[in-house]
């Protein structure tokens, strides 16, 4: 069957990545599209205005799974996409193992806005939180994940990808997750989330301020960086701090994970 994309040779893939897994996957997909004659581009969700998406192009959405859902600001971006009259759209998420309330509810959101959902895929990558595995295990998982990313991109080109209605379970998880219940991260933060630099190690280089996708870290002149209460726990600051001065209380033995270099996240 000729692919959906034979009519439309442009793909704009909007992504967010905390520690690099989603960046690697979406980059691989863009490479595969380009190798097959499609004009594909990658855009950072945190730097993009949803109202500016080009509805003449196929739209892609890429993000990590977080707390059986994804980050509030990713949902906000998606929910603020303009209404469309049949623009093709696909999604890809990366996860450590268990997803939940994303694929089904996201399909409903974009369908209601008039998009044509052409593909959804969840790709297992190394977990970046709790128990960080050994490097060789992570390397293998990344390799396998990138093979999946390439296959998925090819299936989109061939018109064989699918975004099924998917399990009712997905809806249940969505509506009982923090997004569905409209509990914001800041509600949780006040109790649980706090990433503060170790003042013995921090040299006030300001990398964490640049990395934070929601401008939640401030650094007054001469002061240590301060993490405000909106933290969504994407782990960028902890994973890419050059002095390892910010540790995550949820990571076993303070071990951190990064799939790419900080400059690739910033670039
Ligand atoms: C706060 C947080 C919550 C997470 N929750 C889940 C989860 O519910 N299920 C899962 O399989 N992985 C979960 N993960 C792991 C990430 O989804 C996974 O490692 C992902 O590939 C990270 O992508 P990134 O490197 O692009 O940020 C979580 C990670 C973080 C930081």
Explain this structure to me?
- This protein is an alpha/beta fold and about 270 residues long.
- The protein has 2 domains: about 5-175, Flavodoxin domain (Rossmann fold, 3-Layer(aba) Sandwich), CATH 3.40.50; about 185-265, Alpha-Beta Plaits.
- It has 9 helices and 7 strands; from the N terminus they run βαββαβαβααααββαα.
- The chain has helices spanning about 20-35, 70-80, 105-110, 135-160, 170-175, 185-190, 205-210, 235-240, 260-265, and strands at about 10-15, 40-45, 60-65, 90-95, 115-125, 215-220, 225.
- Helix 1 (about 20-35) packs parallel to helix 4.
- The mean pLDDT is about 90.
- The structure holds flavin mononucleotide.
- Flavin mononucleotide binds near residues 18, 19, 20, 64 and 99.
- The site of flavin mononucleotide (FMN) has 24 residues, from helix 1 and strand 4.
